[in-house]
Amino acid sequence: MNTIEGKDFEPELPPKLLQIADNIRATSGRAFLVGGWVRDAMLGRECRDFDVEVYGITQDTLLEILSHFGHPNLVGKAFGVIHLTMRGLDLDFSFPRTENKVGEGHRGFLVETHLDLSFAEAALRRDFTINAMGVELPQLELCDPYHGREDLEKGILR
User: Fold this and answer.
1) Torsion angle (degrees, nearest 10) of CA 2, 66, 91, 13
2) Whose CA is closest to 81, among 93, 96, 98, 97?
3) Rounded CA separation 74/29 (Å)
4) ω before 15 within 30° of 0 (cis)?
5) What is the C-alpha separation between 11 and 14, in angstroms, rounded?
6) How does DSSP classify residue 8?
7) What is the average pLDDT across 129-134?
8) pTM for the predicted model, two decimal places
9) Which uninterrupted H or E stretch holds 149?
10) Strand partners, 109
11) What is the Cβ-side half-sphere exposure of residue 141, based on CA atoms within 13 angstroms?
């Protein structure tokens, strides 16, 4: 993986995370690291905050996969968020979703998960382009539909 400075960066990813990603792929699903991890990787920084967005499989299938690695906890059923804790490692898995403002404040959103959304469609809900990037696992391929890498290079929040 190349950083925004063009340097080769090989992030230290937990082997169990890569095994989970392989199992997701084996069921025709896709797994993307998203959010702060991607931004930090582009800056050449290690990050231990692993947020994984999962595409193409159902919640039941993901729960079955995760149950082989620890005890998955459905912490945000309405948001499709599953937390998995293993020895020294916390992982959050979510499904592609949309958010629509329907009320006041930070809780005034209607959140809906959609298994058929593309990465680009799901990334539309992110606050900044630099947070709308994803890295597909296990091959570490960058998905950047809104040019977040370019904005990060320029120091722009858009």
Assistant:
1) -30
2) 93
3) 19
4) no
5) 10
6) B
7) 94
8) 0.87
9) helix 148-154
10) 101
11) 8
Amino acid at residue number 58: T
- Contact present, 84 and 73 (Cβ < 8 Å): yes
Residue given tokens 């904005």 in the structure block: 151
Q: Which residue, 62, 51, 41, 47, is CA-closest to 130?
A: 41
Q: SS in 3 state form for 87-120?
A: CCEEEEEECCEEEEECCCCCCCEEEEECCCCCHH
Residue 12 DSSP one-character state: -
Residue 124: pLDDT over 90: no
Label residue 33 by pLDDT band (50, 70, 90).
very high
Residues constituting the chain:
158
Among residues 32, 53, 34, the alpha carbon closest in space to that of 96 is found at 53
The enclosing H or E element of 60 equals helix 59-67
DSSP 30: E
